[in-house]
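Quick question, first post here. What does this chain look like in 3D?
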Amino acid sequence: MKACPSFQCPKPLFRSCVTIWTRTTSLSRTQLSYLGQLHSFRAKSAEPEFDGSSSFTAVPLSLLTAEKEEAKAVLSLFLRKLGLSSAVAARTIKKSEYFIEHLISRLHSVHKSRYLVGRELTTLEIRDALVPYLESLLDEHGDVLVDVVENFPNPPGRERPTISTPPTTSSLSSKKVKAIARVSELGSDGQLPAHILYLIELGLDMDQIKKMARKFPAFAYYSLDGKIKPVVELFLDLGIPRSEIPGILFRRPQLCGISLSENLKPTMTYLESLGVDKEKWAKVIYRFPAVLTYSRQKVKISVDFFSELGLSAESIGKVLTRCPHIISYSVEDKLKPTAAYFRSLGVDVALLLHRSPQTFGLSIEANLKPVTQFFLDRGFNIEEVGTMISRYGALYTFSLADNLIPKWEFFQSIDYPRSELVKFPQYFGYSLEERIKPRFERVRDLGVEVLLNQVLSTSDAELEKVLEKKAKKMTEGVLPPTLTDFDALQVESEMKDLKL
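> Answer (accepted):
Ran it through. Tokens below.
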């Protein structure tokens, strides 16, 4: 039986290959044949191949290199989602040159028609072709998947045949070196490549461009007119200031690998159908450029979960507009456990998500539980903590050492009841030195009592009027230093807001 050819692998690709390699009595011959084909694939990557029924157009070396980097990025993300650290995933990929070649042949097989017409695959197309395949391998091999990847094409658990294998053409680090060299080398005319000159003119410097190539080597091979310039022009049309585009590309160079007509624009249309404000695309993309690189399936999973929580379609649209990076959170690993934790505190999870979606990106163990315990240790009960987070979701985003502790210590010095913080947890959102201390010093100087809310939430001029009025009435003996009718109305308003 033949080993798996580099371009025409059967559909149950990996299962068949492993079976052949495991059962054959001439393993060394099969291995040599396969490695020979891989070596030929490397050496003739720009040459067409024919099998009598279909053919592939020439694959330029630069395109093949870019595809390998894309495949490595997909495999790295897949391994990290399985629980591997970034360092372990990188080491695995470094050992898996033959498996990367195998993924490229898989890619060419799936998208044969695209190569026939000379069309370059987008980042999303590469990912959508490889992720389901990797998932099928995980289902088949489970815990030994990493061994399968690293030992490819040798089946795990068998001794490798003693053969002389061709040296690997490159490693992960050398790919980065080549990508950096490509963006910085001068041409025969003594000039940098056209796309690099364009990026420099746009506002990126060479250090940033090299970092982009190091972080995502495929970017070094993107064409100016075919990939980079169309994305930049789209962003300008959306109203993104030219000065902000370099930062967006630096954070997410993969955007330039996405087809505008087949992926990027349809993704925008889909997100608009979910309620994303099309007038605010500039802000959405600036906040989280990667939102345009997620598949519809990933977005739909998140949106469906938001609906299950009780958010209306309008609220979901507002959440996606204000906090687009929430799409990057795993529903099973992040959103569901966080929702369950807040629900255990008696919080209206839908309301919290609508008001403070960024809170759902916090770690339960590292952020949420320590803040909850901080308030419990200071005499608040669970119901009061739930009320506080319901009223002010950003409360959990603050640092204990830099924010909550020093502001709590100051609060104890101003002789207000703890219930004031339950009614107005926004206290922790104001600057201690620039707002809280100066205002309470003014209140002390006049010797009057004012609600926490009123001291901090009103403007300087409004607060001064209130203080002067209270001081005058106290002097006249008309009003004792207690709650005014205005204060009572403030409390009533706060309670109504809490019920909402």
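Residues 1-57, 157-171, 479-489, 493-500 have pLDDT under 50 and may be disordered.
DSSP finds 27 helices and no strands in the chain.
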